[in-house]
From TrEMBL:
It is an enzyme of class 3 (hydrolase). GO terms for molecular function: arylformamidase activity. This is Kynurenine formamidase. Its EC number is 3.5.1.9. The keyword Iron does not apply. It comes from the Eukaryota. It comes from Ogataea parapolymorpha (strain ATCC 26012 / BCRC 20466 / JCM 22074 / NRRL Y-7560 / DL-1) (Yeast).
Amino acid sequence: MVVEYTKVHKYDKQSPRQLLKHYKVVVPSSQIAQNAPIVYIHGGAWVGESHTYNELGPLIDKLDLKLNNGAYTTGEQLTEIQFFVLDYRMSPEVVHPHHILDVLHALSFVYKLGIHKVSLIGHSAGSTMCTQILEYKTFLGFYDIEFTLPVPDIDSIVFLDGIFDISKMLEEYPSYLQEFVEIAFRSEQDWSEKCNMLHYKMTSDTKKEIRDKFNSLRKTIIAHSTKDELLSTRQPTEFCKWLDQLPYTDYKYIVQDMGTHNETYKSDGLVSIIIQHLLH
Ligand SMILES: N[C@@H](CC(=O)c1ccccc1NC=O)C(=O)O
């Protein structure tokens, strides 16, 4: 084992949810080729208490076991991998766009620790947030909010069992309107037009701006579990279609058994994706 260090930081003072957990894991340098710190953004459909900064603990333990499972001598070259697991205020404590504003504040806290490039993993609504992070100036503009703190550049993104298009999700799962969409968003316009770039009325300039953002990523991974009981593959396939028309086709779409919706972030499948795509 070597989870060498964990520390929970408070990145803001309005709520006990404004916390992030920082992990440092030491592994033999020969096991990895790339090493941008990894930021994980949990889901939970913007509501409730069940997802926290502790959510990635089991996966980090698995990754640690996998990369540290051979005897290695004290002479071996070692490398530190860092994880930041973000928590943020949920509804009804706040409504959109304050969940993602908390996430941006958490990212600026990471930047202040001297980390200027990270990879992102977003689970479910955390995937929606990854799309928002690429374009935060545009959508915050709809709310006349300016966010001027520096945040790290993005190396790569893993979208894990994500929500990308709330309107299409509601066509398939109408009950989600009352279960969480109406609680997390103040109005229909907020979730149908102003939530993320999939719904911006795109001029060729905005299209180019978004295409350039995706082109600047080293890896774009869209992963979905065949056993996800809360979201079908319609969300990721629609997202892939939307990326195709940008046009941006340099992504990898992985559909495999990673367990149920809330098992995906502890799955062996995600461990492999991290090793193969973020650490190589
Ligand atoms: N709050 C519930 C349900 C949930 O998170 C959810 C339900 C349907 C579709 C997506 C969901 N989560 C996305 O972040 C949970 O924690 O599993």
